[in-house]
Amino acid sequence: MPxxxxxxxxxxxxxxADAHFFRPVGLRIARLAFPTRVxxxxxxxxxxxxxxxxxxxxxxxxxxxxxxxxxxxLVSDFFDSADGQLARMxxxxxxxxxxxxxxxxxxxFANLYATLIARLLVASEPAWFAITLGAAGGLLHSxxxxxxxxxxxxxxxxxxxxxxxxxxxxxxxxxxATATGWHRLQVRIYAGYVARQARTFASSVAVVRRLxxxxxxxxxxxxxxxxxxxxxxxxAWVAQNIRFLLLALLVVPGYVNTYLWVTIGPxxxxxxxxxxxxERRAAAMLHDDEAPRLVTAxx
Length: 299
Known about the structure:
mainly alpha, 12 helices, 0% strand
């Protein structure tokens, strides 16, 4: 078993709850599965099914069932952490596995927001209001999560001098050129995600391209780490763990509307501020006269 199987993301990227709670438990699950025939994709499926069951329990107007639903979400996240660690232990990590993991997260939370819409409808909220509020909450949650995830991916890739899991549109285009059948459909779905992120983080993607073209990766990595560390750490305010806390504090006692408004309002403002500041700092790196190493690739 590889010594670094847990793939430590570092104190900057890893939230406290992940480093001290979710990842250690996930690592235990992965170690138990390592000598068996259980695959990472099967563990991803367990995470998905557990998350779907968790969301269903939040439909009922019962503190006990709602609390059980939040607890099941935590269990789902244990398995969500374990699948990637098992793949790295076996050195079988693939783009498809990462895509499947992302799809699992999307389905778990899409189911949650559909359940909250149904709960509002049963509580006699007007249909237009319940559907609009729930759909807006779900959509904005998805956007916030994808932005935060990409900021962390960029940090790991650039700050480690090209180490980590990050694809640009041109990388996916090379894969798509040889993909066939079902794999081609998977690549097209993934290509859409990569293209959207590249448009949102245009300056950051430009920095990645410079990183790949320059011989001074260590200098660029150090500068990126110094500039972006604070932003990456602040991503915890809109990342997944904060959702579990909000579910416990607001949905369990019955404040479903408040949970959705917090997702739509304050969390969106925070996420947009993080993306804007992140891109401004990336653009500053590209045009900083004190960093001529960044322009050598175009000389």
